[in-house]
Amino acid sequence: MSEVDGKRKVNKQPNKQPMPSQDPKVRIKNFSEVALGYTEEDAVIEAERCLNCKKAPCRQGCPVEIDIPAFIARIRERDFAGAIAKIKEKNNLPAICGRVCPQESQCEKYCLVGKKNEPVAIGRLERFVADYEMAHGGETVQKPASPTGKKVAIVGSGPAGLTAAADLCMMGHDVTVFEALHTPGGVLVYGIPEFRLPKEIVRREITNIEKMGVKIRTNMVIGKVLTVDELLQSGYHAVFIGTGAGLPYFMNIPGENYNGVYSANEFLTRSNLMKAYRFPEYITPIVVGKRVAVIGAGNVAMDAARTALRLGAEESYIVYRRSEKEMPARKEEIKHAHEEGVKFHLLTSPIEILADEEGKVRGMTCLRYELGEPDESGRRSPIPIEGSEFFMEVDTVVMAIGQGPNPLVPETTPDLEINRRGNIVADPETGKTSKPGVFAGGDIVTGAATVILAMGAGKKAARAINDYLATL
Amino acid sequence: MYKIRSKKVLGPGLKLMVVEAPEIAAKAQPGQFIILRENEYAERIPLTIADFDRQEGTITIIFQEVGRSTRDLGLLEAGDSILDFVGPLGKKSEIEDFGKVICVGGGVGVAPVYPITRALYEAGNHVVSIIGARNRELLILEEEMRKVSHQLVVMTDDGSYGEKGFVTDALRKILSQDTYARVIAIGPLVMMKAVSQVTKEFGVKTIVSLNPIMVDGTGMCGACRVEVGGETRFACVDGPEFDGHQVDWDLAQQRARMFLAQEKIADEARGGGCRCQK
Ligand SMILES: Cc1cc2nc3c(=O)[nH]c(=O)nc-3n(C[C@H](O)[C@H](O)[C@H](O)COP(=O)(O)OP(=O)(O)OC[C@H]3O[C@@H](n4cnc5c(N)ncnc54)[C@H](O)[C@@H]3O)c2cc1C
Ligand code: SF4
Ligand code: FES
């Protein structure tokens, strides 16, 4: 398959080297990771598909500017340690990004090979080298610059906060992260399920950041136990806010408060953060009925639908107002959901949830939709079809229609400007807010987006904070 | 880790713990709550702050052992530690000089009503308090409540102490003798609902403190949804105090039963002995 192209071997196979995965029939009975990861052979074969382009169009799709062809070249040479070192120059969380980034709309979207064939599996390669490093115990902890004597407080330990913390620490600042929950990681620990992102991996990446010198304080709800102003008064020279989009939206339809209706956040937090999937060893309960309807079609919805199957649901539905084409989830998640038997009720949405006399959900009245003209998001907007009401029998409903910004920090920081959606207004290049010394980034600024965009925002803010600290 | 400085058994299954949490103690206000997670396997459970001592840096919690989590917690002794302890959560009580107020506490609900009563008393209100319990053994904080009330009425269901009857019996009597600016009532849902019904007849504004099922306590999950005045609210951030006349009590009671079957399984799984046998 490979042929020699000048000195270099180029592998012309049209498709990505397949990802070894757990069999769908087996994996819906466990919470272990679905995608098992490349072997060394797989990785080298895939790396040989890369053309090592001079212009490297893939790089423009990477929000943290990884030198993609350079790390892939090292894989080809079997210098796996060199490959990961190259990635880590730019990205402190490669094992996570390799697993959850929507590569098809980022680096892989621009890959030259992708013009005719499947693009190079950049994400899988990134994951491979990160896992290789963990497995070979060679995790190198980077050494920070000499101390500057400046203190920075980071609010929220999701990807935005962790990235800002790691970068600022490297620059020699004294960094403390304040996290509201009992475990750091943000959505990576409470939202994204174990079968997609093992929590052990998140823990190890965070431990590495702590080893660099970042302090993490859990159980600290900023706005309650301390305000941003109090942080500034108590010796922190700057504050970065990365509190995410943690506020779950509901549809505001009748019956949403019946027993059996969860927000995706509650459903996933119970299962992931509180480990209800190991109930009663872990004593946080979760109730999953026989038929579960998840409303929405993003990553959150796919995660909820697939979690429901693993928790014992006989049927798990995705109920979505638009069509397959508009579904915002990563392609791979949609594919995995299909493989696992999740049923897709598209162009459908509930208008009411119905319950039995004890208040337990027994079904939903749904409406069918057709697609009209594209709206401002560019997606064709759904139009209800008159008289198309029908009853869908379900006993659990999970609302995964989006999340907004949690108002706790803005409410308690009077001079912090927010927009009408409640997001903090911050300069996209620097994270600067209306309040001097206060920076923000990630979902709290953009609204619910992606891990890598949050990390990119954390990186930019770290640079801007470093500049700001130099002026003090 | 948050160390338990002291522990007191107040009655059968009724325990008080003073926990070292200086940052929370520095900020706590009457009406707020904490969420704790005893150990790695435990649930996150909300408990209203029964008292706080800013100098000592401690938070007092009082709980009744009603299920797996509170029973496990009750086994801890002074010197032991609680893994996670977060707060102060929720909005603080509205405290000002309203004139004449009535504070009602039922069962373990006397614990959270105490700091509110004290604050209202210190703010210059004329405070009439009614506290009640099933029987004498379950009655708590009588002396503390007496010190911060101009008048204290004690009720027990079985008449083993104070007057026989429910707190609502005393409330009705007091309300028919004089006019009051507001009533604050904390206790079991049925009690708060009954109190709200009585005060509605008299047209007296009533504040209740809801303690629904919670997970994070920061507005992130919506497990704590309640309906107040026809609107869905998150009790952990919008409350825990709400206008008792506006609360949808039937829904609150229904939602409290959501995990009843699982709670039983968890309680049974507790069995005896150590986890390593599993
Ligand atoms: C279920 C699910 C699946 C997803 N799947 C993907 C995916 O596959 N790929 C992808 O790229 N993106 C995915 N996303 C989106 C992605 O996770 C987010 O865009 C990203 O995590 C945002 O990072 P962040 O750092 O801004 O915020 P978060 O990750 O939300 O972290 C915010 C942190 O701040 C803490 N916090 C909030 N308020 C306070 C406060 N007042 N004081 C202290 N701490 C506070 C929170 O507890 C949290 O830990 C998914 C999201 C969800 C919910
Ligand atoms: S665009 Fe594709 S082929 Fe070119 S360097 Fe990037 S990954 Fe390799
Ligand atoms: S407990 Fe999660 S939102 Fe209130």
Explain what the structure shows.
Chain A contains 17 helices and 18 strands. With 472 residues, chain A is of the alpha/beta class. Chain A has a five-stranded parallel β-sheet. In chain A, helix 2 (40-47) crosses helix 3 (68-76), helix 5 runs antiparallel to helix 7 and helix 12 crosses helix 13. The model of chain A is unreliable at 1-6 (pLDDT under 50). With 278 residues, chain B is α/β, with parallel strands linked by helices. Chain B has helices at 22-27, 68-74, 110-122, 142-147, 167-177, 189-202, 235-238, 249-256, 260-270; strands at 2-11, 14-20, 33-37, 45-48, 51-53, 58-64, 81-82, 84-89, 100-106, 126-133, 151-156, 163-164, 182-186, 205-209, 225-228, 231-234, 241-243. In chain B, the strands form four sheets. Chain B has a seven-stranded mixed β-sheet with strand order 12-11-10-9-13-14-17, sandwiched between helices. The longest helix of chain B is centred in the last third of the chain and has 14 residues, at 189-202. The site of FE2/S2 (inorganic) cluster has 12 residues of chain B, from loops.
Fold blueprint:
The complex is a heterodimer of chains A (about 475) and B (about 280).
Chain A: E1 2-5, E2 8-11, H1 24-27, H2 40-47, H3 68-76, H4 80-88, H5 94-100, H6 107-110, H7 122-135, E3 151-155, H8 159-170, E4 174-178, H9 187-190, H10 199-212, E5 215-217, H11 228-233, E6 238-241, E7 247-248, E8 261-263, H12 264-271, E9 291-295, H13 299-310, E10 315-319, H14 331-340, E11 343-345, E12 348-355, E13 361-374, E14 380-384, E15 390-392, E16 396-399, E17 403-404, H15 408-412, E18 438-440, H16 443-446, H17 451-470
Parallel strand pairs in A: 3-4, 3-6, 4-5, 6-18, 8-16, 9-10, 9-16, 10-11
Antiparallel strand pairs in A: 1-2, 7-17, 12-13, 13-14, 13-15
Helix pairs in contact in A: 2-3, 3-4, 3-7, 4-7, 5-7, 8-10, 8-17, 12-13, 13-14
Chain B: E1 2-11, E2 14-20, H1 22-27, E3 33-37, E4 45-48, E5 51-53, E6 58-64, H2 68-74, E7 81-82, E8 84-89, E9 100-106, H3 110-122, E10 126-133, H4 142-147, E11 151-156, E12 163-164, H5 167-177, E13 182-186, H6 189-202, E14 205-209, E15 225-228, E16 231-234, H7 235-238, E17 241-243, H8 249-256, H9 260-270
Parallel strand pairs in B: 9-10, 9-13, 10-11, 11-12, 13-14
Antiparallel strand pairs in B: 1-2, 1-7, 2-6, 3-4, 3-8, 5-6, 14-17, 15-16
Helix pairs in contact in B: 5-6
